[in-house]
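Write out this protein's structure.
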Amino acid sequence: MKLTSLQKTVFALTILLGILSAMQFRAVNSGYKYMSIKEMYANSIELESQKAELVQLREKANSLKVKIDEFDTARTDNRIDYESVLQLEIENTQKAAGLTTVEGPGIVIIVTDGTRELYENENPNVVIVHDLDIRAMVDDLRNAGAEAISINGQRVIFNKSKIQCTGPTIKINDQVFAVPFVIKAIGDRKYLESAINAPGSYSESLRKWGVFVEVNTSINVLIPAYDGTMANQYVIQ
């Protein structure tokens, strides 16, 4: 079967989107002018997560190159129904990119401000949930193999999801939320739960500081599709 110009374009776009879908989430700067011990810890986790993400992206790129070669060989030998393959690629890519509602086993996390009494001269920010705390927890979940993540019903996807402090609230995908924050993740329940409860994890440190963190596993977690804009602000097509 000979590829039409449209099919070639769609195929190329799905491959490119496949690369982008590997980068489900990118953290943004919180805007703080000083860095507490809590912030330094969160940023160190974020840095390690980005290093791991770079390795995964390289592996993904190599895998896609092999896939392109296989498609090209099959095209030459007329061994593929390209319309069916392209449709499947589009569906899989949309799912991986967070553009469809998904469900599966996973965990549900509840995070809210601590209520303990402060020590003398203690900074009250240590018991308050900040954007950097949510980002660090999301990074831990991604490193544990989470395939889909949402926060208070907002899907977290590459390059579009922003988690930013706005006074006493946090803005997620341009929607403003106050505590509590409900984080849902789909993946291996054992690994995801360990990412939150393991000794030395960021979430465990939050508990020590007094922040409330509760995690429960579930045989079926429903995570909605990303419903924000996909338009680029600066890219000219």
